[in-house]
Amino acid sequence: MRNITLLSIFLILFFAGCSRPPAVPEHTLPSACAVYDMKQARCIGEAELAARLEPCRVVFVGDHHESEALHRKVAELIAALGKQGRHVMLANEWFTPGDDRVLARYAAGTFEGNFTAAVNWKKQAGYPFASYAPVYDAVRAVGGELYGVNMPKSFQKLISENNVSQMNASERGFVRGLDLNLTAHRQMLSPFFSHCHSKKEGESTGGCAERMYRVQVAWDSYMAKESAKLARRLLKTPRDLLMVFAGAMHLKYGLGINARFARLSREPFVTILPVPEGTRSAEVGEADYLLFYPEKGADEWRGR
User: Fold this and answer.
1) How many CB atoms lie within 10 A of CB 79?
2) What does DSSP assign to residue 27?
């Protein structure tokens, strides 16, 4: 009887141990690498990355907003694509579709006046324009185009306040269609929303977290919708390339803009995420490619 009891305890402990979820598999990243191909699990050069993008007409590129060094790397990638004869059309998080006319003149070199004021840069972006100028200059240099995909701040405010009564019919339809049940996406973002630092009066921590998540989903969904519209309208030949440039957390693990884009467009795409030099590991499935850039604080990149 005693042996049977011990055997039972052993079996319970054994199967309990087997039921533990395995650790998330990670790539160990080389100490010196320009670009890491996550599918082949090896380093490639920047020129090879541009060549790998040859079959693609949609590329999502993640941004670390404070890194001018990364922006120079993105500018170099755009220049390399231009040399290949690609027609690069950059859709950027810092602009809205309402900015497209100004952006068209700016890209063509015919805009006269204060560009940053015309696109409300200080309010829409808040980061130094000089940091991003290399990206936009590269687009202009290769004869490319610039577009906006972000939602207006006024609409974002209505979504945050859940103020449906002040929305027009199109906006209400957009909000009703938001998918708040993509569990992997919610799990990825929950650590960032669990400690709400901007509670409204009388709002609980849980209510604040839910509001912030709703805005995040709306943000991703809006940029996906606008990117899909641009893809349908602009991609006419194999040389055309739509590059969607947005914050890395909007693209990580393919769960943000890119997941919602895939629901709206049949265009295949790849995702490139930025990584500061010195980063030693990356979880499987974070992106298709990792683009290294010189910057200190490699351990901070995951939370941006």
Assistant:
1) 17
2) E
The answer to whether 92 and 148 are in contact (CB under 8 A) is yes
Q: Which amino acid is at 252?
A: K
In the numeric block, the tokens 């997941």 are attached to 259
43 - beta bridge partners?
36
Tokens of 156: 């974002």
Q: 206: Cβ–Cβ under 8 A, 6 or more apart, which residues?
A: none
Contact 32, 289 (CB under 8 A): no
136 membership: H or E segment, kind and range:
helix 129-141
Q: d(Cα 106, Cα 254) in Å, to the nearest integer?
A: 31
Which residues on neighbouring strands pair with residue 246, listed in sequence order?
Answer: 62
d(CA 299, CA 1): 55
Q: Report the length, in residues, of the chain.
A: 304
| Cβ contacts of 9 within 8 Å, gap of 6 or more | none
What is the pLDDT at residue 5?
A: 54
Give SS3 for 259: helix
pLDDT digits 0-9 by tens, 99-138:
999 999 999 999 999 999 999 999 999 999 999 999 999 9
Cα separation, 1 vs 203, whole angstroms: 58
Q: Mind listing the pLDDT tens digit for each residue in 39-59?
A: 999 999 999 999 999 999 999
| DSSP 3-state of 225 | helix
Please list the residues that pair with 88 across neighbouring strands. 241
Residue where the block lists tokens 């290399």:
134
Distance CA 246, CA 261 (A): 13
Q: Regarding the domain delimited by 33-228+235-295, which CATH topology (the fold level of the hierarchy) does it fall under?
A: Rossmann fold (3.40.50)
Q: Residue 38 carries which side chain, given as an amino acid letter? A: M
**Residue given tokens 């039972």 in the structure block:** 8
How far from the centroid of its chain's Cα atoms is residue 209's Cα?
A: 20
- Asked if 33 contacts 23 with a C-beta cutoff of 8 angstroms, the reply is no
Q: Determine how many CB atoms are found less than 10 A away from the CB of residue 273.
A: 24
> How far apart, in whole angstroms, are the C-alpha atoms of residue 231 and residue 68?
28
